[in-house]
Write a structure and sequence with these properties.
The complex is a heterodimer.
Chain A: H1 8-28, H2 34-38, H3 41-74, H4 80-86, H5 89-92, H6 95-106, H7 111-120, H8 128-154, H9 157-164, H10 169-198, H11 201-206, H12 217-227, H13 229-255
Helix pairs in contact in A: 1-13, 3-8, 3-10, 3-12, 6-8, 8-10, 9-10, 10-13, 12-13
Chain B: E1 2-9, E2 12-19, E3 25-29, H1 36-44, E4 51-56, E5 59-60, E6 71-74, H2 86-96, H3 102-112, H4 128-141, E7 146-150, H5 161-175, E8 179-182, H6 186-192, E9 195-200, E10 203-209, H7 210-215, H8 220-225, E11 229-236, E12 239-242, E13 247-249, E14 259-264, E15 270-272, E16 281-294, E17 297-302, E18 307-310, H9 312-318, E19 325-331, E20 336-339
Parallel strand pairs in B: 3-8, 3-9, 6-7, 7-8
Antiparallel strand pairs in B: 1-2, 1-4, 4-5, 9-10, 11-12, 11-14, 12-13, 14-20, 15-19, 16-17, 16-19, 17-18
Helix pairs in contact in B: 2-3, 2-4, 3-4, 4-5
Classes of the chains: A mainly alpha, B alpha+beta.
Pfam family, one (chain B): TOBE
Keywords (chain B): ATP-binding, Cell inner membrane, Cell membrane, Membrane, Molybdenum, Nucleotide-binding, Translocase, Transport
Organism (chain B): Allokutzneria multivorans
């Protein structure tokens, strides 16, 4: 189809809105001090914590979100459509609201938090576990939505054939559903990891900003922005590089319908 | 197998009872939306009926999940698992059933469908005909007690279909395995099936031996798909000797001395008042029984059931009257000769 020429103007502007800020950031980088800035103790500690917590929450997303996607795509019961839209909640909710919600569920006065505290002596807020939970909360829909899409695209025909060949439900899941889903799992995992790595609002509301325990890279950047702008920009560059790697790995499949 | 199903889905209702004898191949034909595929899915257990029963080999199967039914399904699309090799695809059934000799079973079936050389390939490296042969081997390697075939030749191109049709005939006959095949092709029904069931709007409107239904159809649908000329007889080198003793030359893969049928379209028939004596042509002497409009053409019916479609101009020129003797002439290249099942 040939597009109306005028359409190119807003299209290019839209592209500029997405890309220009990153170029602006690159222009502000102090390239001489860069190695020193990204290898400071605080920076390395924040980066290490970010990578660890993002990996943990991605794993949690996969272990819980994978089965959730299967149920949403394959099960058939009343209210399923409603459940499916609820799963998108963290996607549309401001993360800081999600963090507050987590705090009032799992904080010392929250009904689940009280039970954990009294019953098991577990206090989650302001711990590394809280960071992982906050990241899992915001990243879960990314994994669930991409897996569910992949499952719907794949359809149930291969699974039906496997059943007529005598394969029970677990065998079908293990030998047909999951192997066919691997590309979708791959891009879902990468997207969830990227979202977890960039998580800020829910983390600061639910886990605070304690160096070495809950201060992840985005929190460190926000903090440095007040005192040392060059350091903040250098760390931002680090996240930009990670984001570009993520896009390079996940983009083709995420965009092309997870085939 | 004995089955009876009632199912209502919105405006569609299905109410069918059918029996398949051991070793019998039953073709189910019918217009789109008549419930053919639904019937197969009900038997396979992929769709639940509102009411009914299903018995196979003395077992009551209605409450049994698909994987415990022992009912194989070959669909229009081969649906080979794309992440597995051809061999692993065929091994899938025996492995799922925890057979220790799954490798041997798979190799034997690959050989049976002439696909042993493809064992190491991935499904995407196969042609349509090759993939369907492997899918057949995979279905049979699970050793089902009943095979369901859902238009197994429809997705194949015209070059690949005859070979797979011949293969289906060979393995279904050799195994003496009961099968139910959905098809829209009179030829498939004729070549592969003992009995034909015509389904319309969820009900069986006609059933009987394949050749009887296809040559003397009583339902509108059977008449429409069976608008072919069929001459029964015994296959000979390069053709078929009809039961009346006339040799009809044609093309086909049938062996010699088999019970068979020559098939040709009424549109391929030319009509002459005198025998044209052209060597590559078959000339059949018939007595005209009737004439009727057939689309833009005139369909001539002979009293032995053969039909010819000619233009109104040709009909006028020939000045034909019912009861007259004429020659139906058809080129050998327009005639297919097929082995057929004794179903008359």
């Amino acid at each position: 189809m040939t597009l109306p020429r005028l359409l190119w103007v807003p299209a290019l502007l839209g592209f500029a809105v997405v890309v220009l800020p990153v170029i602006g950031l690159l222009g502000r980088v102090d390239w001489v001090r860069l190695p020193e800035l990204v290898s400071s103790d605080a920076a390395l500690s924040a980066l290490g914590l970010s990578l660890q917590t993002a990996a943990m929450s991605t794993l949690l997303c996969l272990l819980l979100g994978g089965p959730l996607a299967l149920v949403l795509a394959r099960a058939d019961f009343r209210g399923l459509r409603f459940l499916r839209s609820l799963v998108l909640l963290p996607l549309v909710l401001p993360p800081v609201v999600g963090g507050l919600a987590l705090l009032y569920l799992l904080g010392r006065n929250g009904f689940l938090g009280q039970w954990l505290d009294v019953g098991f002596g577990l206090r989650l807020p302001y711990t590394t576990a809280a960071v992982v939970l906050a990241q899992t909360f915001v990243a879960m829909p990314f994994l669930v939505v991409s897996l569910e899409g992949a499952l719907r695209t794949a359809g149930e025909r291969y699974e039906a054939v496997a059943a007529t060949l005598g394969a029970g439900r677990w065998t079908v899941l293990r030998r047909v559903t999951i192997p066919l889903l691997l590309p979708g799992i791959g891009s879902g995992v990468v997207l969830a990891f990227a979202r977890a790595l960039g998580e800020f609002g829910a983390t600061i509301a639910f886990a605070g900003s304690l160096e070495g325990t809950t201060r992840t890279l985005p929190l460190e950047i926000y903090l440095q922005r007040e005192s040392d702008v060059d350091a903040a920009v250098a760390l931002s560059l680090l996240l930009v590089v990670i984001a570009i790697v993520v896009i390079a790995v996940a983009r083709p499949r995420a965009v092309e319908g997870l085939r | 197998m004995k089955a009876e199903f009632q199912l209502a889905r919105g405006a569609f209702a299905l109410d069918v009872a059918l029996t398949v004898e051991p070793g019998e191949v039953v073709a189910v034909v019918g217009p789109n939306g008549s419930g053919k595929s639904t019937l197969l899915n009900l038997i396979a257990g992929l769709v639940r009926p509102d009411a009914g029963h299903l018995q196979l080999g003395g077992r009551d199967l209605l409450g049994t999940p698909p994987h415990q039914r022992g009912i194989g399904l070959l669909a229009q699309e081969p649906l080979l698992f794309p992440h597995l090799t051809v061999l692993a695809n065929v091994e899938f059934g025996p492995r799922a059933q925890r057979r220790a000799d799954h490798r041997e079973i798979a190799l034997r079936w690959l050989e049976e469908v002439d696909a042993l050389a493809l064992a190491g390939r991935r499904p995407r490296q196969l042609s349509g005909g090759q993939a369907q042969r492997v899918a057949l081997a995979r279905a049979l390697a699970a050793e089902p007690e009943l095979m369901l075939l859902d238009e197994p030749l429809t997705a194949l191109d015209v070059d690949a279909a005859p070979a797979v049709r011949g293969l289906l005939r060979r393995v279904l006959r050799a195994q003496n395995r009961p099968a139910i095949m959905v098809t829209h092709d009179a030829l498939d029904a004729l070549v592969l099936a003992d009995r034909v069931i015509v389904l319309e709007a969820g009900r069986i409107v006609e059933q009987g031996p394949a050749r009887a239904v296809l040559t003397r159809p009583r339902s509108a649908f059977a008449a429409r798909i069976a608008g072919l000329n069929l001459v029964a007889g015994t296959t000979v080198e390069g053709g078929l000797r009809s039961s009346a003793g006339v040799v009809i030359a044609g093309l086909g893969s049938a062996g010699v001395g088999e019970e068979g049928v020559a098939v040709f379209s009424p549109a391929a028939v030319a009509v002459h008042r005198a025998n044209p004596h052209g060597s590559p042509r078959n000339a059949l002497r018939v007595r005209l029984a009737g004439m009727e409009p057939h689309g833009d053409l005139i369909r001539l019916r002979a009293d032995d059931g053969l039909a010819a479609d000619i233009t109104p101009a040709a009909a006028a020129e020939l000045e034909l009257e019912p009861g007259e003797q004429v020659w139906f002439v058809v080129k050998a290249t327009e005639v297919g000769v097929h082995a057929a099942n004794g179903g008359v």
